[in-house]
Amino acid sequence: MWKQNKALLALPLVVIVIATAMSGCARSASIGTHDPKVDPFVTDRVATVRIVMEEEDWTYCREHAFEERYVPADFWWDDELVPDVGLRTKGNSSLGQAVGWGSPRMPFAVDFNIFNRARTFHGVKKVFLNNGWSDPTLIREVIAYGIFAGMGIPTPRASIIDLWVNDTHLGVYTMVEMVDQAFIQRHFADATGNLYKPELVVARLDWTEKDAYKKLGFPGMPEMPRQDPILYTNLGGAPLIDLLRALGQEEMVSLYEPETPVEGNMFRGLPPMRMPETYLEAMMLKTNENNPDYTALFKFLDVLNNEPDETFPQEIEKVLDVDLTLKFIAVSAVIVHLDNYIGIGHNNYLYEVNGKFTPIPFDTNMAFGTFNSGIRKDGLINYFIDEPTAGEMHRFPLVDRLLSHQPYLDRYRGYVEEIMNGPFSLDVVLPRLDRIVEMVRPFVEADTEMFYAFEDWERCITEDLRPPDLFEGWMAGGPSPMLPFFLNREETSCLRKNFGVSSLFELMMRDFKPGELEKLEECLSEETYSLFLQNIFGPLMAPQPPRQPGFGPNSLGLKTFIIARHESVRQQLNGERPSSSGSGAGNGGSMWMADMFDFGR
Description:
Blueprint: H1 2-23, H2 25-31, E1 47-52, H3 55-63, E2 71-77, E3 80-89, H4 93-101, E4 108-111, E5 126-130, H5 140-150, E6 158-165, E7 168-177, H6 181-187, E8 194-196, E9 234-235, E10 238-239, H7 240-246, H8 250-256, H9 279-282, H10 295-306, H11 312-319, H12 322-334, E11 348-353, E12 356-361, H13 377-381, H14 397-403, H15 406-421, H16 426-445, H17 454-460, H18 489-499, H19 516-523, H20 526-537, H21 558-573, H22 592-597
Helix pairs in contact: 10-11, 12-15, 15-21
């Protein structure tokens, strides 16, 4: 009976949302329209973005960040006002780390048409404001996106901004265009297709329709309540639950979804995650959710995984934009962007229309080797272009099958050459990098909330953020230079007297009180004390609390890496350096994270 009553309530809920949202249209329209021909992602200056909201809403965002609920706000882009937008926190590790530190520098999503379905901001419906948690230079994202776009790949626009929320100066962020219906309309002649954002479990595309409804297992992940399908019905770009909460209709939400505590795993810096139940759910369909048709997806997966080699070229051309895919793989390999398909196996979109799929890059803030998949520095610089996968090639069928066909491999190598002579040419990318650095410098110097000190930012433009250690940060949050296992008698005695411990490892998770670090410094040699500080704080200049974000300390000097990588790729193209392992092993990266999420197979 309750399920029947819930279904009867669905129509009134939708009516409430539409009526309330429409009531805001008149006010918003009176402000004026935003010319879609104006590009708000400016590249010649740092725009100032101000979010203005009720102080209690800003407090709510900070104190309940993991709930990721929209609150009403006004959005100022320099002197241009967009009133009545929806703002919420967003992200996984980037949000979890900020919350874990008690930092207001959280990543945000801004929805310009949540209260007015007809409105956009210069043609954009939603942007992400990214907080730079894993990039000490704060510019990797815009440079990487520029290289993808320079090859004619449909790519989100991005620009560097200086962000304020009310009177809080959050500092240098990256504003990134959301890959959504508005993005699709700008890049494709037909915007009626299916947009997917596949995640870790399924993103390598090494499965078929027979696996679609298999249950997934996630060892160590807490079970969260399942989502009510009515509340998550999409209404013009946003789930019904987001609209209800943004409009203050919490009592309607509670009828469908009882309130549950929202907690994260602060030891890993992660917010709570609602994991998908099946392979198909993990493909994360973003359009046409209310009337899904997976026929084309299953056809594509069948061709990719099962088509005989003899007929593969003819059949794959029917279901995949092969040219754009080869370009996508080529850029990813050249800039060593392993936080996408060729590495961990996520952070890219797939758009399908009329049965043909196209990859779309996303989330490039850890390009240029910051996300390293356990590959050491030398391996990142000399990342193979002809086996451009972190792990074994056969685990990445989109790369393996395309590059196993000689004509496709030849075309792919032509695109690598085009990248090297075009957007990744040193005559192009280095002046662009230098210009962005000088443009951003005064804003970084005034940024008191960023995750790294100004000195760290300055150094990481050309130098690795921290000295290499035994494992070179083989996984996110890997060790800094190794602590000594044994101390001399005087040091050990001093630790016992002042801290009640016998080794430095017992102090790694300690929240030091005022004066305790000074006592520790008195106990240890200068070198050992320095090593300890690097382990708990990351780079020595970092002003933030202990346990610096895991990926950032792995960052290689950006300009130095680009120069070295360019030389390596050139040598590989010329046959002066190996371009593959010769065995299909790829680049020897760790697949531990992907394997963990393969548990349900």
